[in-house]
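Tokens in:
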């Protein structure tokens, strides 16, 4: 046996043709034309005869196998013409004569071949393979390949006349294949090259192109079995070539073992490897799918993931929008729509449409006036199959044919041409349709398209059923709310909205035993449901051992009417409005009632303060009127005194008295003018002012308005820059602080006023030596209506207004106080040319920054989240890493990083066992993220988390933990995007979710190819960093590493940034 190029090419071609034949027979249900199968059979006979002839196996003679080869060769052109007629869609009747004539000619050519008139001799000599052409070879080849020429003419004509761009793609591919085979046959007639099967190689290439055209453009798809056959075959060839390379060129086994055996061994090992090596098959299958699926393969993967997530959508319009947009972007459609069954009107109404052409208009979105009648042929076609197997009619689709969709809107009607219709069926119920318009780039759907659409149809059907059910429930809930007085108690319905009410609510029986509480009650009273349910309400709510005197529950149950009462908590600090409502129950059931709490402390205080404000407003109006009335006689006094002064003798008592009258009258006029300016309503127009001047004016006004007693005023003013502020508002700030300081000293002490320049900031200090502020009140002094003065002595609004004004100017008020030693207020104001809204991130190092961090934790975590006060500023917080975000001078956000290598045990370990997640390496916790309400939608929360992550990773720590309230789903999702995963929960007292990150966060890899997101984010973040020392190096080290990963040579490198860059 001879195994060389001349024999291996036919062998490979024969195997390929056999695969094509098997596939054609296997796909008979897809109507593979018999002409293509004939063509493959002729080519297989040609290849097999050529292989046996060139291999010289000793089985019969080379001449015999040459005649077998020519039988396939002469039949190929005729069957090729028939295949071209089928693929091009040409009317077969026009060329029926050519096909019949071809088969008659083939019989004649077979006779010439078998009688030895084409090739007279063939065999092997010293020079290798030889053959001798007979007298009839020219006529035989000419008559046979005349049909190839006819095929070329047919293809060229159809290519020129066709207006279908998809058909042109098919014809162009077939034309190239025909040219290739003609060139191969022509070269083979040249004897020096004729010993090699070049024509067969060309025919194999042509067959592959036809195969691709048939099964790509004719919409006949690969089955999974065929894909596995092709995959096994090509992997076997590839691995055999690799083994043959190593055996022959590396190990030189062919020197000691015949080449035939080496080749056989390589083929066997290649076949075994292609079957056994699973990762290789998986990779190759993915590659084969990508080749077949083309550039949309990635879209298919996205569509598969999207379809799996559909079942969580319960809104009809959202479901329709997401589904239609995804399908249109994946398949490139001209239009698409979703029709949903309206069970009331018994029609299929337009739920969502994109680019839908209807009666000269383009419809986008929802338009339920457009509908598909239930009695239409399209609906009946699916209704007939409702009782059949699922595989009967999963979609309505005919290759290269359109489906008529009759739509109506009132008197208007239009029939659209769709390429495919997906029914949305749930069990035996037809809930709707997804209708796809024509595709822009092609006119067919291949296997992957149909499989993905079928999967999408199944998932969308379930989602639609859920959405319809949800819509019915929502409508039912509306009806139930409208007849609320007829509802009977039902836990199943109560739970649907009970926990969503933000007011604390409890349901109790006649003995005050709590039956149920909502989430707001559990959170407000900081107790779990287990602690509350079954307990007496007066015990767990007000720490009493008997019912409250104000309780109206028994009256409510007796009269079956609602009642209301007020009660203060045990400390007398809060006032509650208690509302009691009877709940209708069956006569045999024990009476129960609903009680909900409203904290009306602020409302009560506000009511009192509004009354006080009305009084102050009246006093202000009175003062304004009195000042106007006083100005008139003052003017007369000054005028008279000015006339008397020249007439008084020099140095006389009359002159002295007159001058005193003028001076006192001028002082009175100045006081009245200051009162008028202070009480006048003015618009807040900022101007460039001098802080010291305003402090002096405020002091002057305060000294005229209140009694300073024996208080000593000390002044320490440095030269300061001008600031941009409204003079009247700033005077109000300083006047409030001075008045509070004087009142705190009760007429005896020292009032110190100072002003100094610190960098670009102007700092004004108002300090007294009074009684000081209690520590527990320091965090509340800026709250509206908070005051420690006696009732009627103050409104509690002064410091709140002052804080608001200073914050609006981009500054801040810093308070330091010691009981019995005095209080100091520092007002820090930016210079006129400073940016008041500049955001910056710092690592807390001084006492003020630590206090800012704890202040934010108290304000957000204690004030809003329900943390306990004693959990703020814990012992281990002193050694932690505190990150702060400032906007201007105001702290707006903070978070804390705890490191096991410094603290030993991180705080989360006090509530949750982490032992199974620790591997002996250092670990960290990101704790206490607190952002003021106004900045929660900005970049500040994300920036703080990123900086904490960069700092931890920069220290070489890979394992990070954090906890978050379970009900804060938005934060949980943000952490999951950053790479954290949920590892458990704990309750203390409310449910908290524990999350862990023990790998490099892949968030930046999932957002716009990383370089578009990370570099832009870091570019904005870097100028805002004010880190120093090792902390700065840790963060910048990680920024550099991330930038290097995303770099393509164009991003900025982070060197040791100088001050100008920061």
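Residues out:
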């Amino acid at each position: 046996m001879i195994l060389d190029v001349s024999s291996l090419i036919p062998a490979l071609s024969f195997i390929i043709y056999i695969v094509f034949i098997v596939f054609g027979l296997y796909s008979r249900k897809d109507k593979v034309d018999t002409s293509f199968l004939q063509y493959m059979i002729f080519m297989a006979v040609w290849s097999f005869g050529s292989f046996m002839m060139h291999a010289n196996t000793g089985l019969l003679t080379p001449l015999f196998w040459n005649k077998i080869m020519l039988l396939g060769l002469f039949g190929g052109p005729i069957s090729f013409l028939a295949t071209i007629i089928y693929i091009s869609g040409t009317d077969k009747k026009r060329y029926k004569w050519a096909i019949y004539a071809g088969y008659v000619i083939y019989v004649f050519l077979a006779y010439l071949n078998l009688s030895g008139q084409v090739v007279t001799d063939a065999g092997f000599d010293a020079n290798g393979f030889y053959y001798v052409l007979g007298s009839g070879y020219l006529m035989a080849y000419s008559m046979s390949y005349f049909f190839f020429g006819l095929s070329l003419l047919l293809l060229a004509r159809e290519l020129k006349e066709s207006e279908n761009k998809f058909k042109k793609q098919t014809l162009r591919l077939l034309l190239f294949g025909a040219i290739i085979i003609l060139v191969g046959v022509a070269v083979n007639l040249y004897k020096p090259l004729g010993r090699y099967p070049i024509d067969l190689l060309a025919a194999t290439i042509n067959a592959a192109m036809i195969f691709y055209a048939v099964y790509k453009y004719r919409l006949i798809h690969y089955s999974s079995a065929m894909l596995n056959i092709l995959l096994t075959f090509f992997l076997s060839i590839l691995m055999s070539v690799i083994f043959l390379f190593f055996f022959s060129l590396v190990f030189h086994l062919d020197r000691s073992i015949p080449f035939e055996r080496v080749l056989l061994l390589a083929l066997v090992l290649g076949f075994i490897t292609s079957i056994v090596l699973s990762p290789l098959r998986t990779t190759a299958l993915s590659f084969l799918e990508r080749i077949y699926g083309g550039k949309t393969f990635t879209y298919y993967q996205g569509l598969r993931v999207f379809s799996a997530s559909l079942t969580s959508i319960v809104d009809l319009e959202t479901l329709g929008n997401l589904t239609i947009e995804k399908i249109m972007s994946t398949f490139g459609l001209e239009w698409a729509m979703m029709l949903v069954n309206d069970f009331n009107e018994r029609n299929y109404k337009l739920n969502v449409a994109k680019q839908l052409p209807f009666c000269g208009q383009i419809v986008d979105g929802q338009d339920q006036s457009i509908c598909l009648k239930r009695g239409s042929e399209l609906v009946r076609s699916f209704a007939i199959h409702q009782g059949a197997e699922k595989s009967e009619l999963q979609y309505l689709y005919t290759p290269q044919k359109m489906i008529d969709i009759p739509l109506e809107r009132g008197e208007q009607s239009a029939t659209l041409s769709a390429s495919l219709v997906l029914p949305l069926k749930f069990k035996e119920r037809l809930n709707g349709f997804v209708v796809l318009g024509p595709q822009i780039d092609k006119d067919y759907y291949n296997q992957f398209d149909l499989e993905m659409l079928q999967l999408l149809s199944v998932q969308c059907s379930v989602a639609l059923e859920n959405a319809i059910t949800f819509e019915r429930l929502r409508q039912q809930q509306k009806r139930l709310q409208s007849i609320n007085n007829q509802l009977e108690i039902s836990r199943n319905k109560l739970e649907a909205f009970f926990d969503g009410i933000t007011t604390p609510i409890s349901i109790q029986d006649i003995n005050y035993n709590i039956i149920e509480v909502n989430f707001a009650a559990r959170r407000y009273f900081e107790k779990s449901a287990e602690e509350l349910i079954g307990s007496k309400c007066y015990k767990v709510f007000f720490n009493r051992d008997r019912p409250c005197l104000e309780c109206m529950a028994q009256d409510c149950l007796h009269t079956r009417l609602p009642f209301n009462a007020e009660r203060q908590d045990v400390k007398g600090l809060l006032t509650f409005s208690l509302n009691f409502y009877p709940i209708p129950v069956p006569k045999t059931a024990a009476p129960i009632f609903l009680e909900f709490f409203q904290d009306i402390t602020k409302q009560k205080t506000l009511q009192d303060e509004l009354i006080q404000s009305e009084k102050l407003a009246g006093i202000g109006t009175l003062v304004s009127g009195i000042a106007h009335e006083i100005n008139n006689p003052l003017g007369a006094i000054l005028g008279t005194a000015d006339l008397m002064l020249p007439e008084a003798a020099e140095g006389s008592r009359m002159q002295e008295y007159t001058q005193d009258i003028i001076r006192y009258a001028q002082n009175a006029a100045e006081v009245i003018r200051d009162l008028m300016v202070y009480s006048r309503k003015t618009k807040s127009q900022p101007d460039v002012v001098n802080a010291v001047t305003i402090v002096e004016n405020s002091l002057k006004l305060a000294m005229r308005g209140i009694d300073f007693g024996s208080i000593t005023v000390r002044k320490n003013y440095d030269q300061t820059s001008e600031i941009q502020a409204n003079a009247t508002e700033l005077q109000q700030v300083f006047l409030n602080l001075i008045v509070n300081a004087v009142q705190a000293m009760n007429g005896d002490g020292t009032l110190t006023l100072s002003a100094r320049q610190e960098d670009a900031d102007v700092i004004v200090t108002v300090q007294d030596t009074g009684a000081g502020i209690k520590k527990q009140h320091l965090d509340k002094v800026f709250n509206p209506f908070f005051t420690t003065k006696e009732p009627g002595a103050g409104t509690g609004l002064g410091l709140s207004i002052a804080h608001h004004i200073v914050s609006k100017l981009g500054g801040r008020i810093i308070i330091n106080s010691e009981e019995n030693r005095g209080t100091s207020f520092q007002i820090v104001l930016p210079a006129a040319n400073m940016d008041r809204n500049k955001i910056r991130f710092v690592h807390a190092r001084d006492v003020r920054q630590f206090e800012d961090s704890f202040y934010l934790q108290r304000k957000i975590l204690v004030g809003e989240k329900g943390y306990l006060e004693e959990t703020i500023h814990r012992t281990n917080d002193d050694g932690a890493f505190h990150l702060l975000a400032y906007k201007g001078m105001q702290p707006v956000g903070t978070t804390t990083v705890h490191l096991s290598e410094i603290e030993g045990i991180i705080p989360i370990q006090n509530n949750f066992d982490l032992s199974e997640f620790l591997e002996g390496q250092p670990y960290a916790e990101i704790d206490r993220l607190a952002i003021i309400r106004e900045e929660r939608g900005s970049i500040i929360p994300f920036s703080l988390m990123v900086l904490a992550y960069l700092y931890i990773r920069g220290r070489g720590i890979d394992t990070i933990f954090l906890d978050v309230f379970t009900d804060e789903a938005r934060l949980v999702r943000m952490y999951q995007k950053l790479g954290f995963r949920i590892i458990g929960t704990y309750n203390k007292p409310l449910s908290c979710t524990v999350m862990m990150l023990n790998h490099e966060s892949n968030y930046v890899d999932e957002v716009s190819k990383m370089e578009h997101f990370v570099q832009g984010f870091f570019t904005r973040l870097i100028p805002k960093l004010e880190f120093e020392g090792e902390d700065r190096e840790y963060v910048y080290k990680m920024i550099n590493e991330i930038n290097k990963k995303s770099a393509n040579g164009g991003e900025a490198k982070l060197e040791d940034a100088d001050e100008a860059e920061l």
